[in-house]
User: Which sequence fits this backbone?
């Protein structure tokens, strides 16, 4: 049976569509400008700075970046940090959240309290630096992965999500002879796919966009993630790379167009991957909304 909409409903729906469309355009427009500037000749950009479709496309900035060794190493490091970091984060989170979701676990409240404390109190930058150096992680790729391997906030949300899964499913599996690992990997994790996909997106984006830890914990330029390479070009105006001999043509044209091009290169993978996880992300928006 089709529900008849009133004029007020139609007006409200039209307002929502118009508002969401305008908001999407506002969000997409800066990225469209960066994409256009990365393929626009610099002199044409100076003459028509608001033109989004250039008279002819110039891909010289991308060609120069393809010959830039630091971009390749940055991509390689970022992919490794993101993939390994996400796998480590999801594994530790599931293995930690499952036992904490058991209300009859001895010492559960004490452990949750200790985990919660870390959300409000942190040792700070200097103690963390000394910890990384003492563990022998300084100036290694693992210094960019292990310190953020498990977050307290995401762990608590995952625990709350697992608490919502009916106990009857686990009891039936135990009666059939399943142990805790079988219950976790055959029942709990498959039912937690929306939550896991949501945390994968959150952690992957965080790892992909991270650069501050690389400033603190690494010295070798070969260990720089892609976002630190981008920062070097955009924030430092590319001069450090010019001084290092990485950019042979230090003209403003080269630096400006390469800034735009490397921004596109840096964000393109996340933009391409997100649509495949969007359906799970939508289902997982209410992760942990019910207190466990």
Assistant:
């Amino acid at each position: 049976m089709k529900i008849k909409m009133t004029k007020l409903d139609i007006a409200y729906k039209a307002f929502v569509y118009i508002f969401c469309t305008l908001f999407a355009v506002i969000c997409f427009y800066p990225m469209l400008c960066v994409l256009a500037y990365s393929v626009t000749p610099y002199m044409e950009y100076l003459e028509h700075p608001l033109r989004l479709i250039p008279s002819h496309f110039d891909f010289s900035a991308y060609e120069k970046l393809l010959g830039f060794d630091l971009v390749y190493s940055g991509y390689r490091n970022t992919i490794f940090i993101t993939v390994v970091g996400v796998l480590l984060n999801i594994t530790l989170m599931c293995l930690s959240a499952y036992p904490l979701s058991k209300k009859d676990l001895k010492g559960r409240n004490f452990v949750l309290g200790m985990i919660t404390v870390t959300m409000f109190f942190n040792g700070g930058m200097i103690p963390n630096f000394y910890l990384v150096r003492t563990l022998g992680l300084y100036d290694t790729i693992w210094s960019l992965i292990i310190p953020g391997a498990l977050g307290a906030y995401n762990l608590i949300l995952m625990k709350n999500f697992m608490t919502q899964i009916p106990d009857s499913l686990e009891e039936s599996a135990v009666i059939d002879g399943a142990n805790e690992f079988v219950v976790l990997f055959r029942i709990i994790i498959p039912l937690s796919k929306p939550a896991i996909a949501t945390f994968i997106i959150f952690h992957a984006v965080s790892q992909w966009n991270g650069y501050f830890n690389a400033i603190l914990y690494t010295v070798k330029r070969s260990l720089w993630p892609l976002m630190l390479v981008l920062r070097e070009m955009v924030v430092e105006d590319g001069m450090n790379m010019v001084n290092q001999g990485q950019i042979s043509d230090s003209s403003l044209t080269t630096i400006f167009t390469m800034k735009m091009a490397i921004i596109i290169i840096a964000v393109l993978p996340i933009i391409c991957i997100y649509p495949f996880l969007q359906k799970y992300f939508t289902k997982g928006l209410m992760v942990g909304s019910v207190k466990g």
